Amino acid sequence: MTALSGDSSVRAIADFFEQRTGQHLGESRMWRIETVLRDVMRKHGLGDLHALHARLQRDPYGELAAGTIHCIMNHESSFFRDLNVFESIEKQILPHLNRTLPEKLLRIWCAGCSTGQEAYSLAIVLKRQEHLWKDWRVSILGTDISPFSIEKAQAGVFQQMDVQRGLPIADLLRWFEPNGDQWRIAQDLRALTSFKVDNILDHHAITGKFDLILCRNVLLYFSPELRAHALSRIARLSRPDTLLILGAGETTIGTGTQFVPSGAFRGAYDIGGAGPAPHMLDRLAG
Amino acid sequence: MKNCLVVDDSKVIRKVARHILESLDLVVDEAVDGREALTHCEATMPDVVLLDWNMPHMTGLEFLNELTRRKLPQHPKIIFCTTENGLGHIRAAVEAGADEYVMKPFDRETLESKLQLVGIL
Ligand SMILES: C[S@@+](CC[C@H](N)C(=O)[O-])C[C@H]1O[C@@H](n2cnc3c(N)ncnc32)[C@H](O)[C@@H]1O
Fold first, then answer.
1. Ligand 1 center to residue A115 CA distance, Å?
2. What is the pTM of this model?
């Protein structure tokens, strides 16, 4: 008997995972369920996937559920992942927001931030252009469904492998200090960021409107319906001129949501569609 | 296609680096120490040098200082790639003009991201 045909628990756990996270597991990832859950099962004294599933049904929001979701999830991230996206944020999008936002208040949200590299990369970019943001209130909120990832993001301590991938050496020297054989991120960058556990399918931890939202490599494995649902929730935390950035290869097209490709910034989306909203154009003209 | 010179006294590291770099569409040459690397650079200047620190005859840092001193018409991008992971070494390399720094062990993603950062990819 194979795991897929023989063990309905694999499918039941995959269904539980999809219901909670939106992530649809392909066959190849489903094959790995038993392996990736071995430690969780051992820790909770559960003999097999059947017992695990039974416990998840009884307690779908407890520590076991969080651990199960965390172990199945793909958390891959890196500093300045997709360098060209960060170049466009640094050279075009942030200067644009700096010119056009009315209140000297910049709010950025990284939805599905994993262990924090994306949020901290944005913090580094903001520090590089500190002259632009003097006198501004600037904040970067990172959220993720996994409390374990959020804890790591908050700690801001990274392995050598993590700080090598994508992070320029000058920024390592400037913003990190050695911590044993790991690297701890500077307090100055941490002060710009905050991290919270939050499920993008059911925002409860977030309020207000954001100026720039990154939701990259999160919706890739969502079914079209759940992707539309997640995007409509993101839309509620957006203004018409809020810019949304998705991962390479992800798009809002075909989801029936309000987000359309931004007229002004390649690769970004907004609800207005035709570039900056009218009040922004006034400000640009002025 | 761009050229990368791998300077390392370890045959294994040169082989691993070559494998990764060729998969990234770079043309790879090898040198076993700083002295051989200098000779190579005078004959054909690579676009980028992947440079070990500790090597017999001439260390990576001595190579970089000497290359800078010679003021050749072109200067390659320099990526240190070494087991020396201390802050002091990283600072010294950057002060000497290194563009990037990779700590061993490294993998394909790391090298690829560093090559992007220095504008080679
Ligand atoms: C592949 S990582 C991407 C991290 C980062 N955005 C990047 O691109 O480098 C995807 C992250 O999304 C999180 N995630 C997945 N489904 C989620 C959901 N429904 N709500 C919030 N976060 C979710 C996962 O826990 C994981 O950390």
1. 9
2. 0.92
Q: Taking CB atoms and an 8 Å limit, are B114 and A160 in contact across chains?
A: no
Per-residue pLDDT band for B7 (boundaries 50, 70, 90) equals: very high
CA distance B113 to chain A (A): 5
A196 Cα–ligand 1 center, Å: 13
In chain A, where the domains are located = 6-72, 83-285
Instruction: Identify residue A146 by its one-letter amino acid code.
Output: S
ipTM above 0.90, yes or no: yes
Topology of domain A83-285, CATH: Rossmann fold (3.40.50)
Asked if A19 has any chain B CB less than 8 Å from its own CB, the reply is no
The DSSP letter of residue A126 is: H
Does the domain made of A6-72 have the CATH classification 1.20.58? no
Question: Using H for helix, E for strand and C for coil, what is the string for A171-231?
Answer: HHHHHEEEECCEEEECHHHHCCEEEEECCCCCCCCCCCCEEEEEECCCHHHECHHHHHHHH
Render pLDDT for A12-38 as a digit per residue (tens, 0 to 9): 999 999 999 999 999 888 989 999 999
Q: Quick check: A175 pLDDT over 80?
A: yes
Q: CB count, 10 Å around CB of A112? A: 26
At the fourth CATH level, the homologous superfamily of domain B3-117 is: Response regulator (3.40.50.2300)
pLDDT on residue A283:
40
- Ligand 1 atom nearest A201 alpha carbon: 19
